[in-house]
Amino acid sequence: MNSKSKAVVLFTLLVSFSLSGCLSEEALESLESENSCSAEIQIRESDGTLKILTYDIAGFSDELIAQFVNESGIEVEFIRTDDAGGILDQMMLTKSAPLADLMIGLDNTYLPTAIQNCLLMEHSVSDESFTTSSMEFYRGPLAIPFDEGDVCLNYDEDALTAANMSVPTSLWNLTEPEWNGKMTFPSPTTSSPGRAFLAATVDYFGHSPGNESGNMSSWWNAVAKNGATFTSGWSESYVNYYTGGYGEYMEGHIGGAYLTVSYCHSPGVEAYYSGNYTHSTSLVLPRASFHQVEYTGIINGAAEVSAANKFIAFLTSLEVNANMPDYNSMYSVRNGTDLPETDGYRFHADQAIVSTAITQQLIEQNMDDWLMTWQDAVQIN
Amino acid sequence: MATATVKQTMEPVHRRTLKSFRTLIVVVFLIGTMLPFAYALIRLNYVTGWTLWQAIFEFPHVYGGLEALRFTFLEAFASSLLTVVIGLPIAWFLSRYQWKRIRLLRAFLAVPFVTPAIVAAMGFLSLIRQDGFLTKIGIDLRLEEGVIGWFAEVSGWQHPGHFIALIIAHAWFNLSLMIRFVEPTLSSLDPAWEEQLSMLPGGKSRVSRLKNLWIPVIGPAVLCAASLSFLFSFTSFALVKWLAPTSHTLESLMAEAGSSAGIVGYRIDSSELIYSVAILQFLVLLLTLWITALLQKRYSERLSLLSEQGVRKHHGPPSRLAKFVIGLGVFFTVLPFISVLFSSFQVRKITDGSVEYVWTLEGWRNAWGGDLSTMGVGEAMSNSIIYALCTLLVALPLGWILASTIFKLEQSGWSKSSKLLDLACMLPLAISALMVGLGVLLGGLRWYPEMFSWFLLPVYPHVLLTVPFVVRVMLPAYHSLDPAYTEQCQMLNLSPLRSWYHGTLMFLRGPAVVSGSLTLAFSLGEFGASWLLVRSGNWDTLSIVVDQLMSRPNFDPLIHPTAMAAATMLMMLTFFLFLFAERFRAHDQRSGF
């Protein structure tokens, strides 16, 4: 066989193989074992560097990390993902052979999945002096909160006044004609605030045994029919469509949406960076908010366990954690801390009326179903 | 006599060794190209439980799939069309007149093609911002007021602004394709044809000349450029991500689900989506490549033999209209770059609700200091350069050997095999960067998890994605080689290595520098695969740092100029490389890139 024919045959074989989907029995078994909790986890090989899996937290600047390195003598390397969902994806993908020691950024809508899949191991950091609200959802050895905040609806006060619209007093108001085409929501399948708000709607529309998602499906279907725009992430909703946020100064802005999902304290963050000016405010309705807590925890199979514990202690120390409003635009989880008063940060941050009905167990058991229900409800074409 | 006999017996051995080496390289390349894609498909096949046919037939039911397919076709067609509309007059005037500093003009008009997609995205974003150039001249693509608002109202098309920005950016990006294909055809067309035809009944009117001369002559070149423009717009990722964030192409839809795909028992919907979309995209791109290859064949046939200088002399110095069109073209290409540069020095300041942009160096300070990103631009730039150099070390020899193999096959009369190998060399362009990245990710984790931590991992997809360009530059250079030089070397009884050095290498130095610089530039700007594979914050590239900054909530006004400063650094690096490469490009270089 000459060289050309060999090349052709090999090429054909490769294409055929790729399209046939044929796998050996061993390979299939090995793939199947990945999903069970009992699957053997390979301990990451120690290289003296603490590897941290996280999303882009602005506060983790060179300066802050240098402070930790100087204090502890431990080298740090960050493994970057896009958001909380990305952290969970990465942990699931590398479950049998972890690549990092510590995760920072899973929130309480993702944490149950991580725990359920044995992705975390016990830490040894004390959780005393933490706020009650941060410890309500999960208090255990596998994860520890590092920041918190309430996800709720934000609306543009000026736009509502100009359009002579009234502030909603119920989520059902958003299905009325005056709100047609004036709302935007990040998708709960790809956005962590979107997921948190989905959980809030489950709470709002009253779940009960046997009807775990309550009537939330009807509401989501109605808002979809009322011209709501669904985007993949928080940024697309808040920056591109929402008229009340900093998006109006950004290039990608389209506008048109007077209401979106963000945090109850987002108007405070807006004011803080805009010389105490904002025309965005929160819609505080009972049970229409979700208290989001972001966690850090040691990844099962970590090599640098002691270093990971030191970093958790550093991150949750009063000195560092009190700066969370600056670092990550979220509340600190340490008792006795609050948002800064500067430039209206605290003044414009609204307090949510949150219930504790959506528990870790509920999320663990139902999140996949809620997401499917949501997807069916908003697909109206 | 004895020496001559030894030489005679050595030659077949030398040839056989070379042949085996070439075969090995071809096999390695084909395996390297197909393996990540094949592995990703096998994995998705297992996770979803879908057969290949199921994956294709389930496409209409995949969440967001049909919408993305519609949008991808629409933007790719519109972008190709706009590329022709903008590029054809520029190529026309550039080819017909004697321009002073034509190399520089060509370089300015061609630089968008090698510009990193993330820089192009930042450039167009800064053009359409509140205080940007387009808004100032009344084209508000952002809030869709004025002309765009009127267009939206008349057409009933909701939010056309971002779509328009996207297709303009694609046309900007692909402009050089029109110039590289159309200019050589027009500049080498015998002016006598035009004169003679105008005296014949079939060439009396402009319309008949267009029908009987211009369309047959430049048609294949235009279609070639348009089909490649379609191909690149179809797989566009960074530009879509930033300029049309509310729409999805098939590529950006896959990117969104990429991180959760291929995991057993977890987010099966993501795996189903990727499986279905990847196969459909692969088939469309394979078809596009096949059509492009056919068009390129017709294009090569149309090229006449008259020297470029003679045609230009015939038409003389450029007319006013020609100067205006070329000036406009250069302005169009440099505008986004200038806009990025300016934006890196401006920060928004809100006072009592009104916004103003003030000049500052804070963006540059933050960018260098890495205060808002995982690292400073200096460090990110050195990472980018390391990746680019490693890519160059592998992609250039690999592409060169593949080009020479295709050429040898052609010369030996293996026409079909050479065409097949030529098409196979373009395969990495049919497999999206993201799929290559996903395949490497899933395959690497399965077989050798530690590989994922290996900082050089992104070099693999970079090599795959740059080899087609090396082949496309080196192959025409091989075609233009005069075999007489090699024959003379052999007559002088030089060793095979010295014959190759004097008869081949000396004539391929220029194209090798061009393809090397292109490889460096493409690797510097590669985004899709790096986006999926570069996870270690210690190895972030400049492209990744720009995206990282822009993806962050921009409450803090300093984030934006910092991102623009990082984009400017990447832009300057690419500029330098490209201008360097253009010095080595021969006047009559007829390669597509």
Summarize the amount of helix of chain B as a percent range.
Answer: over 70%
Annotation field: number of helices of chain B? 26
Order of helices and strands of chain A: HHEHEHEHEHEHEHHEHEHEEHHHEH
Number of domains of chain A: 2
Low-confidence stretches of chain A: 1-35
N-C termini distance of chain A: 55 Å
Q: How would a crystallographer describe the biggest sheet of chain B? A: 2 strands, antiparallel
Largest interface: A-B, 79 and 90 residues
What is the makeup of the main sheet of chain A? 9 strands, mixed
Number of strands of chain B: 2
Question: What's the short story on this structure?
Answer:
Chain A is 37% helix and 16% strand.
What do these coordinates show?
The complex is a heterodimer of chains A (381) and B (593). Chain A is built from 15 helices and 11 strands. Chain A is α/β, with parallel strands linked by helices. Chain A folds into 2 domains: 49-149 and 292-344, 3-Layer(aba) Sandwich (D-Maltodextrin-Binding Protein, domain 2), CATH 3.40.190; 150-290 and 348-378, D-Maltodextrin-Binding Protein, domain 2. In chain A, the strands form 2 sheets. In chain A, strands 1, 2, 3, 4, 5, 8, 9, 10 and 11 form a 9-stranded mixed beta sheet that branches. Chain B has helices at residues 2-48, 52-57, 65-96, 102-114, 117-127, 133-136, 146-155, 161-187, 191-199, 206-234, 238-243, 250-258, 268-302, 308-315, 320-343, 362-369, 377-411, 415-425, 427-430, 433-447, 459-479, 483-491, 496-525, 528-533, 542-551, 559-582; strands at 346-351, 354-359. Helices cover 75% and strands 2% of the residues of chain B. At the A-B interface, helix 1, helix 2, strand 2, helix 4 and helix 10 of A face helix 1, strand 1 and helix 18 of B.
Per-chain topology:
The complex is a heterodimer of chains A (381) and B (593).
Chain A (H helix, E strand, L loop, with lengths): L2 H18 L4 H9 L15 E7 L6 H11 L2 E7 L2 H10 L8 E6 L3 H6 L3 E2 L10 H4 L8 E13 H6 L21 E3 L5 H13 L11 H10 L3 E3 L2 H8 L17 E5 L2 H8 L6 E4 L6 E10 L5 H11 L2 H4 L2 H4 L3 E2 L27 H19 L3
Parallel strand pairs in A: 1-2, 1-3, 6-7
Antiparallel strand pairs in A: 3-10, 4-10, 5-8, 5-9, 5-10, 5-11
Helix pairs in contact in A: 8-15, 9-15
Chain B lengths: L1 H47 L3 H6 L7 H32 L5 H13 L2 H11 L5 H4 L9 H10 L5 H27 L3 H9 L6 H29 L3 H6 L6 H9 L9 H35 L5 H8 L4 H24 L2 E6 L2 E6 L2 H8 L7 H35 L3 H11 L1 H4 L2 H15 L11 H21 L3 H9 L4 H30 L2 H6 L8 H10 L7 H24 L11
Antiparallel strand pairs in B: 1-2
Helix pairs in contact in B: 1-13, 1-17, 1-20, 3-8, 3-10, 3-15, 4-8, 4-15, 4-26, 5-15, 8-10, 10-13, 12-13, 15-26, 16-26, 17-18, 17-21, 17-23, 21-23, 22-23, 23-26, 25-26
